[in-house]
Design brief:
The protein is of the alpha/beta class. The chain has helices at about 25-35, 40-55, 60-75, 75-90, 95-110, 120-130, 160-175, 195-200, 210-220; strands at about 10, 110-120, 135-140, 140-145, 150-155, 180-185, 200-205, 220-225. The chain has a 6-stranded parallel sheet. A two-stranded antiparallel ribbon has the order 4-5. The mean pLDDT is about 95.
């Protein structure tokens, strides 16, 4: 099958790619605002974890336990109410028309579109819905017998090399593999280098300085949807 005749799959990172903010970090700020977490201690640890993420040294299991603890202890109904407010106060103002239009254009062209993010499902599923994308590959959370989260990660976290694994699993569920499809991936971060190198068409989107330099060296497309926050 030639590349022109293969079905097209377009993948998007979320934070700083489709959104000008980091949704995971913003959720942490929001939990401070509503009194779910201590403003001083939570901010200190959140900033520390974020620095590790930027540096590529984050222990995602430790981070997820920390990030979801406030939600886990308050339960599903409190989460739903809080996240609706989070969407209104943090996410909706951050939705950029050019990002929404980029997603919609790929959908209208007939591409299979998915958001692939290292942020957990509780934070990102409503955001993916706001972009009109039902296919979300995010950090999935383990559930207890009642169906609520335990604080642990279920399966392979969709981060760095894990994004390649999770996309391969997603393709398999669709009855496809990498050779069956023509793949494009939009991302801002060197953390996503494994998936950028795996797809047919990597697009460095609002790239961090290291990724911008690498994209220029390799002749990858560079797309600046908006300035990095």
């Amino acid at each position: 099958m030639t590349s022109a005749s293969r079905p097209r799959v377009t993948l998007f990172d979320l934070d700083h790619t489709l959104l000008p903010i980091d949704s995971d970090y913003s959720w942490g700020e929001f939990t401070q605002r509503i009194g779910w977490t201590d403003r001083v201690e939570f901010k200190r640890r959140n900033d520390e974890f974020y620095a590790h993420y930027i540096a590529g040294t984050l222990d995602v299991h430790d981070y997820v336990r920390f990030a979801v603890e406030a939600v886990r202890t308050r339960g599903h109904d409190a989460y739903v109410a809080a996240h609706e407010r989070f969407m209104r106060e943090f996410i909706t103002p951050a939705l950029r028309p050019q990002a929404v239009e980029l997603v919609r254009r790929h959908q209208q062209q007939g591409d299979a579109v998915a958001i692939v993010t290292a942020t957990n499902e509780l934070v990102t599923r409503p955001i993916a819905a706001a972009f009109g994308v039902p296919e979300l590959i995010a950090v999935e959370l383990e559930r207890d017998a009642s169906g609520w989260i335990t604080g642990e990660i279920a399966g392979v976290p969709s981060m760095r090399d894990g994004k390649v694994v999770r996309v391969a699993e997603w393709l398999q569920r669709r009855g496809q593999d990498w050779l069956d499809v023509e793949t494009t991936f939009y991302s801002d971060s060197m953390n996503d280098l494994p998936l950028l190198e795996r797809v047919n068409h990597p697009v460095a989107t609002n790239p961090d300085p290291k990724l911008r330099t690498l994209a220029l060296e390799r002749g990858w497309r560079i797309l600046d949807l908006f300035e990095r926050a």
